[in-house]
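Suppose you are handed only these lines of text.
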Amino acid sequence: MKNKYTFLIRNLKPAISEEDSRCLQAYHNFFKDKQKELHKWLIKELVNHHDFGNLIRSLSNEALEMQNKYSQQLQYNAIFKDEWDDFITYQIQQGITYAQMDINFYSWYDVVSLARNWMVPKLVKETKDEADLLAVLGGMNRFFDISMSIIAESYLNEKQSIIENQKKEQEKINERLHQAMLAMEQKNQELEQFAYIASHDLQEPLRTVSSFIHLLKKKYMDELDEKANMYLNQISNSSERMVALINGLLEYSRLGNQKERGRVDCNALISDLLLDLDQMIKETQAIISINEMPELEVYPAQFKLLFQNLITNAIKFRQPDLDPCLHISTTDKEDHWEFCFSDNGIGIKKEYFEKIFIIFQRLHTQREYQGSGIGLSHCKKIIELHQGKIWVESQVGKGSKFYFTIPKSIDHEKAT
Ligand code: ADP
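From them, the structure of the protein bound to adenosine-5'-diphosphate can be written out as follows.
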């Protein structure tokens, strides 16, 4: 730092006796030679302005006093102000943020003060004649006028190119992300296709196995011993279960194929469902209450399946010594509806809150509660199809609250 400025002063001195304009020209020529090097250095300091701040703080008090003493004579408050105004205008034109402008301000101020604080006492010491001194100081100010605007410009250009590079980098990342998403969507579709084909084609041989087991049982039950009958029963139960699983998988992969939306009155939908589930409700003495429900633009068949799964689960997972109670409510949340299915059933441990929405995940054996572990994964897929969210809150032994949201308007690009 000091070496650079000593060098500058040495080169400023021969111009002392020249006319102001020639003096300026001389500094300018000198500056032209050295400007690249000097700029690089100053820009680096500006960019790492924290280190630069430390440098400033370490400046001697003596230099600061000198600055005060000569500041009036140099009128550099005024000069500084003009330079700063230009600098601000330039920054605004470049679209620099206010936060960055703040940093620039301190860096700028530091550079100017550091240079002047260091140069002024030096000049005073080395220049005997007062008139010469004033000329040097005047020249120095012009030097700063020119150099600082160039520095500011280079600094801002550098910043600008950093910002542009970052923008380009970000665009590249976004493009890569977009490509990855497209690839993932494609893989997802392939996977669903695969699940559909596999489950569809598996149905046929399974149907054959089931009907032959049925025939075998019917025709030869009396001729077989107890053990053979037990084995046959087990095969029959397992094949029935497999049919249920494969049907579930088939339905799961079919979800979303229906792209026709329609208006559904949720009050009517629930009334219809309660009629369908009448036998189950009577057998279990379930009490189901609902609030006034909205009319929505949804995929009707899937929406019905969603309600059906949640209602049947609330009844199925009831407490052994309690009549099942289910309350269905909705809350208007401005841009979406929030539904809540609140039951007084067995409840779910917190660690399973997410797991239960994964296909084939169950928390109980067939003997405890029958099922295939598909219902909630269906619900999740249906809700995602409607661009909503589904989650559960629950306490073991107290009951569960299944929530889901349905946006009031859908993003059609995402929905296709
Ligand atoms: P399934 O009902 O065929 O077992 P689901 O996907 O519908 O499959 O549910 C997954 C698991 O989540 C269930 O096995 C059960 O343990 C739990 N579960 C779902 N609904 C409830 C509920 N209302 N109360 C308590 N547990 C529930």
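What can we learn from it? The chain has a mean pLDDT of 73. Residues 309, 313-314, 317, 343, 345-348, 356, 362-364, 371-377, 400 surround adenosine-5'-diphosphate (CB under 6 Å).
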